[in-house]
Design brief:
With about 325 residues, the chain is α/β, with parallel strands linked by helices. It has helices at about 15-20, 35-45, 60-65, 85-90, 105-120, 120-130, 155-165, 185-190, 195-200, 220-225, 245-250, 290-310; strands at about 5-10, 25-30, 50, 70-75, 95, 150-155, 175, 190, 205, 230-235, 260, 280-285. The strands form 2 sheets. Strands 8-7-6-9-10-11-12 form a 7-stranded parallel beta sheet, sandwiched between helices. It has a 5-stranded parallel beta sheet with strand order 2-1-3-4-5. The two termini are about 30 Å apart. The model has no long low-confidence stretch (mean pLDDT about 95). Belongs to the D-isomer specific 2-hydroxyacid dehydrogenase family.
Length: about 325
């Protein structure tokens, strides 16, 4: 019996995933540092599965070229805004992603940003580099996490991991918002509130929501206007949940204290962007899941999604 044919979109896909695929399938890997859409379109016909180790768009155009053999699309990511999930499923093609295995790593980055932003780490470094740091009792004072109210926008798997970690920082009160009150929220002692309530009461606002029609542009001028002047804003979800111009205004006009972002719109933030000039702006280049173990686990799950689909079994994490 001929083996299943799988197309992998990047040569530097973790070996955990590649080995698992190769144990059962014929694997083609797009070569080169930056395979183009044309490379993908040329390579896809005749494959049973596509393993996305990048954010290539899978839409009707690509599916038309792929042809009838394609049975499963598997993205090595939790986010899936690059997939036209409705169109993929309409064609009877299975589709999976890799949530949960990255939640701990992303939660660690949320804490990193939250601490850096509230303790003014970037501003301190700039002062040191400029030779302007003066150790006075009132220099670079930040705000404590201890005794604070932390608001989580989106209490999914990542939001839960953030709360679990922050409990040890002696947070006074956790609140969260989303579609509905959740049992895990009750178990963690977190209160379900509206977004407005969360913005008004939180000392730390942490965005851990995926990008959907509902969350797109959720943080605009009006949202930042509702936040405390001392609030720290963290986004580890998706960049377009926040209107970048509104965030810029909020930081420049001191509507809020500071921000820490792992995700931003556009990504990467272009060289010379005004946000880079602000001392109360901390940024990472989307490093949430960038640990060796997490990326290996994501590759394994993405490969297992494919094998399960081809074996006619439920995917580990279907969409
Ligand atoms: O942002 C990371 C992911 O979606 O996996």
């Amino acid at each position: 019996m001929s083996k299943w044919k799988v197309l992998v979109t990047r040569h530097d896909t973790p070996l955990t995933g590649l080995k698992l695929l190769e144990s059962r399938c014929d694997v083609t890997i797009l070569s080169g540092e930056a395979p183009t859409r044309a490379d993908l379109i040329q390579a896809i016909p005749g494959h049973d599965a596509i393993f996305l180790s990048d954010h290539s768009h899978v839409n009707a155009e690509l599916l038309d070229v792929a042809g009838d053999k394609l049975k499963v699309v598997s993205t090595m990511s939790a986010g899936y805004e690059h997939l036209d999930v409705a169109e993929i499923k309409r064609r009877g093609i299975k589709v999976g992603h890799t949530p949960v295995v990255l939640s701990a790593a992303v939660a660690e980055v949320a804490i990193l940003l939250l601490l850096n932003a509230t303790r003014r780490a970037h501003e301190g470094r700039l002062l040191l580099e400029d030779g302007k740091f003066q150790p006075k009792p009132t220099t670079l004072l930040g705000n404590d996490i201890r005794g604070s109210t932390v608001g989580i926008v989106g209490l999914g798997s990542i939001g839960v991991e953030i709360v679990k970690r922050l409990i040890s920082f002696q947070v006074e009160r956790f609140v969260y918002t989303g579609h509905a009150r959740k049992k895990i929220g009750d178990d963690l002692g977190a209160k379900f509130v509206t977004l407005d309530e969360l913005l008004k009461m939180s000392d730390f606002v942490v965005v851990a929501t995926p990008l959907t029609n509902e969350t797109h542009g959720l943080f605009d001028d009006a949202a930042f206007d509702k936040m405390k002047k001392t609030a720290v804003f963290v986004n580890i979800g998706r960049g377009p949940v926040v209107k970048t111009d509104a965030l810029l205004r909020a930081l420049k006009e001191k509507k809020i204290f500071a921000a820490g972002l792992d995700v931003v719109d556009p990504e990467p933030l272009p060289k010379g962007h005004e946000l880079f000039t602000l001392p109360n702006f901390e940024i990472l280049p989307h490093l949430g899941s960038s640990t060796v173990k997490t990326r290996n686990d994501m590759a394994t799950v993405a490969a297992q999604n494919i094998i399960n689909a081809l074996d006619g079994k439920p995917l580990v994490y279907p969409l």
